[in-house]
Description:
2 helices
Amino acid sequence: MHRRHILALGLAAIAAPTFAAPMPYRLGDTGATITYTFTLEGTPLKGTVPIDRADLKIDPNNLEASTADVTADVRRARTGLIFATEALKSRSVLAADDFPLARFKSTKVTLGARGRISEGATVEGMLTLRGVTKPVRFDAQLFRAPGSAPDDLSALRVVMNGNVNRTEFGAVGYPDLVADTVAIEIDANIEATG
């Protein structure tokens, strides 16, 4: 099934007036990962940070009332290169020993012009990294599980993409080697708990 078709089915289900209030969700068994892409001497490289905790509430009748509060342990950050992983967690970049947790807390969900996520939803919020809190913005998509019934919102996949400027958070190490902009993708499988 094509991704666009899955999204369309998900949108139809989410638009259905089945629930009267935000539904709580937890991370699914397959968990969730933050993938970051940084540029090292002109070459894009990827790394990951597992999400430890997520407090998610999704309101199918009013998606703009949905909320997310997500925490990741940056001490568990990894790249494909051991020297890059150690540099990433060092005091001049993430300062993982001093500030082990990164946190994103949503403040606003904005849907497309006609109130549809298919027209480009954005999630704004506050990201805390290295003890510094700054506003960030992500593009967001929400999918139902493939093959699920149109009104089955028990399992969803959330994908969010955005960019952060690492120097705004004080992660200024290795400026001659690593670019300031870091691309972030959050990919989470979540399950309803209510």
